[in-house]
UniProtKB/TrEMBL annotation:
<feature type="compositionally biased region" description="Polar residues">
    <location>
        <begin position="1"/>
        <end position="11"/>
    </location>
</feature>
<feature type="region of interest" description="Disordered">
    <location>
        <begin position="1"/>
        <end position="21"/>
    </location>
</feature>
<protein>
    <recommendedName>
        <fullName>DUF3077 domain-containing protein</fullName>
    </recommendedName>
</protein>
<dbReference type="Pfam" id="PF19619">
    <property type="entry name" value="DUF6124"/>
</dbReference>
Length: 97
């Protein structure tokens, strides 16, 4: 990241303790059930995994390493979400761990 990508007018950077302003571009309805939310999160992370893997194939050196690090974080997130979905599917099994 170079200094030209830093936006000093970004309210989150000027006031990090304040919550982000409400965005109506991407809004998740409040009545969506947990399993549906987790399923969509899992699909989003799987897509991020594919995108970053494809990008890493086009890069080399430090940029490739950084991209693969992001890809690994996406995989870990996907594994965590899948485990949460498994726990929702079988609550008796989840309490045994």
């Amino acid at each position: 990241m170079d200094s030209s990508s830093f936006d000093s007018n970004n309210p989150r950077l000027r006031h990090p303790g304040q919550p982000d302003p409400i965005s109506h571009v991407f809004t998740i309805l409040p009545d969506i059930d947990t399993a549906t939310l987790l399923s969509h999160a899992c699909e989003t992370l799987a897509s991020l995994n594919v995108l970053t893997t494809d990008l890493a194939c086009e890069l080399s050196g430090a940029q490739r390493s950084l991209t693969l690090s992001i890809q690994q974080l996406a995989v870990v997130g996907e594994l965590l979400v899948n485990r949460a979905l498994d726990n929702l599917d079988s609550p008796a099994t989840a309490t045994q761990h």
